[in-house]
């Protein structure tokens, strides 16, 4: 399933480079928009595969020593094009340089979904901040943006544990984030206001 999306990426990169060399700005802009949407399609596919595995009970949590800063850097790099296209910025603040038990695949999807959610719903130029701290045996990560925020109803549904199965309006990405956090023996809470959205989770 990922094959066609990966192949599209390989075709887009030389096409964008050629268009830039020829100063075809309108074509460059269109191709970069296609590239951004392709990144989001890959995330959606990963989410759907993760959701299917979760429903089958075949997704197992593989806790292992993980450099948290490394996985965050990886996800920021993966999201760099979409961030640039949105005029956004991602700031890592006070992240402890620690190795912590976590599932690398789950952590990557958590962070990819959080950044994508802020880019889609935060508005152009949104500022995303990632803050980490050690609290006893737990690592707490706070993910905040200064976007438009979410409705009070959506926040209440998320914090009450609603999923797409019991409320058709819940977002798949947010439901997977909560599932992945809980699989790593953590907890998650969402706050939102007109000043932005704030998600805090522990693992």
Describe the structure.
The longest helix has 32 residues, at 25-56. This protein has 203 residues and is α+β, with helices and mostly antiparallel strands. The chain is globular and about 55 Å long. The chain is 52% helix and 21% strand. The protein has helices at 3-21, 25-56, 68-78, 80-85, 104-121, 152-159, 172-183; strands at 64-67, 89-93, 99-102, 127-135, 138-145, 188-193, 196-202. The strands form 2 sheets. A 5-stranded mixed β-sheet has the order 2-4-5-7-6. Strands 1-3 form a two-stranded antiparallel sheet. Strand 6 (188-193) and strand 7 form a beta hairpin. Helix 1 (3-21) packs antiparallel against helix 2 and helix 5 packs antiparallel against helix 7 (172-183).
What is this structure, in a nutshell?
The chain is of the alpha+beta class and 203 residues long. The chain contains 7 helices and 7 strands. A hairpin with a 2-residue loop joins strand 4 and strand 5 (138-145).
Secondary structure: helix percent: 40-55%
Number of helices: 7
Described by strand count, sense and barrel closure, the largest sheet is: 5 strands, mixed
Strand order of the largest sheet: 2-4-5-7-6
Mean residue pLDDT: 83
Which radius of gyration do the C-alpha atoms yield?
Answer: 18 Å
One letter per element, helices H and strands E, the order comes to HHEHHEEHEEHHEE
Low-confidence stretches: 164-170
Structural class: alpha+beta
Number of strands: 7
Amount of beta strand:
15-25%
> Overall 3D geometry?
globular
The N- to C-terminal Cα distance equals 31 Å
Note the main attributes of this structure.
203 residues, single chain, alpha+beta
């Amino acid at each position: 399933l990922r094959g066609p999306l990966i192949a599209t990426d390989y075709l887009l990169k030389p096409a964008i480079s050629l268009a830039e060399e020829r100063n075809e700005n309108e074509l460059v802009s269109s191709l970069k928009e296609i590239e951004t949407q392709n990144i989001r399609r890959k995330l959606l596919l990963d989410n759907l595969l993760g959701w299917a595995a979760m429903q089958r009970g075949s997704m197992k949590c593989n806790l292992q020593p993980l450099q948290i800063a490394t996985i965050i850097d990886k996800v920021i790099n993966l999201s760099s094009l979409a961030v640039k296209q949105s005029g956004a910025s991602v700031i890592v603040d006070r992240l402890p340089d620690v190795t912590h038990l976590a599932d690398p695949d789950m952590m990557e999807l958590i962070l990819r979904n959080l950044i994508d959610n802020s880019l889609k719903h935060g508005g152009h130029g949104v500022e995303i901040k990632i803050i980490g701290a050690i609290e006893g045996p737990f690592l707490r990560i706070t993910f905040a943006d200064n976007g438009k925020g979410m409705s009070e109803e959506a926040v209440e549904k998320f914090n009450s544990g609603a999923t797409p199965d019991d409320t058709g309006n819940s977002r798949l990405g947010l439901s997977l984030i909560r599932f992945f956090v809980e699989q790593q023996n953590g907890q998650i809470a969402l706050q939102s206001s007109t000043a932005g959205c704030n998600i805090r989770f522990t693992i």
